[in-house]
Amino acid sequence: MESDLKNITSFVGQSYGPWSVLSIKTIVGKGLSLSSSMDIVKDISVEKSENTNWVLKGFTSNLRYTNRPEKIVLDQQPSVLGKPENTFAAFIPIKKNAEWWLLTQDERRKIMAENSKHIEIGTKYLSAISRQLFHSRDIGEEFDFLTWFEFSPNNRERFDELIFLLRKTEEWKYVEREVDVRLKKK
Amino acid sequence: MESDLKNITSFVGQSYGPWSVLSIKTIVGKGLSLSSSMDIVKDISVEKSENTNWVLKGFTSNLRYTNRPEKIVLDQQPSVLGKPENTFAAFIPIKKNAEWWLLTQDERRKIMAENSKHIEIGTKYLSAISRQLFHSRDIGEEFDFLTWFEFSPNNRERFDELIFLLRKTEEWKYVEREVDVRLKKK
Asked: Does the pLDDT at position B2 exceed 70?
């Protein structure tokens, strides 16, 4: 029976689809199997089959950590996906460890915002890099978050810089699985 | 095709199931159709059919507002569902308005914890009333939250008192739809 659940997006690694996979790099933990292409489908009913290498699902949500001053800055440069010039993309699924999830909301916020400056770092790259966060943990998926970024060929180095800075933060010490998939629009 | 999504619970209003429906009261907004019984199924694939009056789905998640001192208090009296003496229950689906969801995390926390004392009020009833919160908004359901409470016959008035106090808070001004379903174990 097909489910009627809405707001679930499936990222499907397979041999066809609008995105060519340039590389799949395991940063920490178990990797993802090789796949030549990827499709993004707003449909919960896509299942792993002999034609797919992996299917990862997530949903968009309200902002869970951002405060008002940060929100004002974010709203000044809204993230727009699908811009024609943004022909490069990165798909980075992440799983944080049990220790992270045992922290309370205020403790997680302190590590993210104050100690790691996650929001502050990200804000500097808003105009160059469009992004969308998908949540996976709550629906029992193997990753906690699926992060999706789009950028132009000129901004590939800017993106590498952003990711480099984020991986050095205190917050990233809680990441126990991370795979970095780079893609190019066909 | 059946979905493999885990951690989704379905609350099913129908003519059979382990819980007898005692009453369905619309507190605000659109109600729910009458149903003589209810079942709770940890299965995403239950769909509305001619045999069901309604199917509401949600997932459990990490605590999104609680700070460490509050968590310590909560952990001292963990909520245990399914106690044999808790033969009465309440199922209260809630939808908050757009204004609530435009607030940032710190603003929602301030209204809940400081102005409304939601957590403080709830804490006083922990030993008498077991409860579990399910999230629905993120999966595109018609309600934002499904709240489930279990208590003994002796604690029915205590539960009414708890709900009365919560409905008087500033937080409840953001509730645009609420239905109060009372149940008894068969």
From this structure: no
A136 lies in a domain?
yes
Tell whether A155 is covered by a domain.
yes
pLDDT at B45: 77
DSSP state of A62: -
**Counted domains in chain A:** 1
**What's the domain range around B136?**
60-185
Flag if B67 and A104 touch (Cβ within 8 Å).
yes
Question: If you write DSSP's letter for every residue of A28-44 in order, what string do you get?
Answer: ESS-----SEEEEES-T
Q: CATH number, domain at B173?
A: 3.30.70.3420
Q: Is residue A115 part of a domain?
A: yes
Residue B167: which H helix or E strand, with range? Answer: helix B156-167
Residue B61 has pLDDT above 50, yes or no: yes
Residue A173 has pLDDT above 80, yes or no: yes
Q: What is the DSSP letter of B113?
A: I
Q: Do B44 and A105 touch (CB under 8 A)?
A: no
For A172, the token pair is 């990233």
Residue A140 contacts B where some CB pair is shorter than 8 Å: yes
Nearest to A62 among B45, B65, B101 (CB): B101
pTM to 2 decimals? Answer: 0.91
More confident residue, A5 or B84: B84
User: Is A80 within a domain?
Assistant: yes
Among A66, A106, A136, A144, the residue to mutate for chain B (most B Cβ within 10 A): A106
ipTM value: 0.86
